[in-house]
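Q: Sequence in, structure out?
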Amino acid sequence: MDPLFAFVITLTLITIVSLWYRISPFFTLIGGAVVFGILVGMTPDETMQGIITGIGKVFSAFGIIILCGAVIAKLLQEQNHVEGIIVDIRRCVKNSRIIAGISGYILSVPITCCITGYIMLIPILGHLEKDIVKRNVLLYLAAISGIISYALVYPTPVVIPLFDTFSGGMNPIFFDAVSIPLSLALLGGILLYFRIFHPDEKNLKRTEPPSVSQQIMENRNETHEEGIHWHAWAPFIAILLSIPVAFLFLNLSHVSMINFIMLIGAVTAIILAPSSMRAPGLSQGAKHAGLIIFDICGAGALGFVIVKSGFAQIALNQLTLLIPIIFVPFILAALIETAQGSRVVTAVITAEVLAGSSVVDAIHPLPLILLISAGSCIVSYVTDPFFWIVQRTTGDDIKTVVKNYTIPIALAGFAIFIIALALDYLVF
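A: Exactly. Output:
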């Protein structure tokens, strides 16, 4: 069968199975790899070898990073340090919506999972607003802002495979010099979106909620630490300080540097944690990391089988006859994201498919990465596991979640797409 048709059929089946059975993406993606291999005429052995190789490549790239991020997250959560981070932010910013946006944005990157960062923030954001409608706005802002930084800032599991595949020697500092201001501008746009569609209801008489620090003291009977909560920030500070050490003294490559700094962050969190919390934190972190890693490994399996079939050469040549070549990465990423819902999976598969194709030669690495990131944000709907987490935690109906979650993320995706086009046309 023609690889392009086989690809469309595979994505359709993955979508149907994901919606109907709600099973782990690992199994749907492995099943998709098997189906695709059969449709394009690969032998069973070729298909299984492709699956095994794809899993191995992704695990070696993400295993340490995601495990360290999950361990940091669990140890911070066990010690109530997330509350301390929010208290510190609140000293500088009083607006609860800005606090929710900044918190989601910041936690997503070092924790290496936007969903984990969101779950950590749920009980804290509930303290900022007692009114359920206002509280839900904070939850939406935290979720969306986490996705924005997760899809754009290096190094996250979304950006790493794209950067490693397409950077062509580009410095990650240069990339972040563009992506961080862009992501912060998008965060400002999202805050404006909610200000327009969800203005503060000042005419309603509601009691002012206690400050976060008061809530910590009342609910947990703990002595509130004066000043900055250095223990809460310590793993992140260690990560930042280890970056120049990795480059200037150890002369590590980008790939080695990412693993090194995440290990430093995790070791810092482990050392500072009370002895009674270390083992539970490590155990829970490893369990959570395993779920994330295997889902991404499933993406690696499907992506490698697709590449091994010759899809990139045949199908992409057909696509470029129908649409301008600069639209191909965006549309391909949007299709993959729609089918299975994970931005990391989308990045891994898209990177595998496009590597070595004519698309890479035709588009500068920076706008190319942005185009794929944009496509991963376009359809955050029923196949997106984050969509259902947000729906359950807010208690809103599907229509409301689409309005407050799917549409803002899609608008951010289109904004990234337009900026990528402008950069490719005007700068590169």
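Residues 70 and 287 are 9 Å apart (CA to CA).
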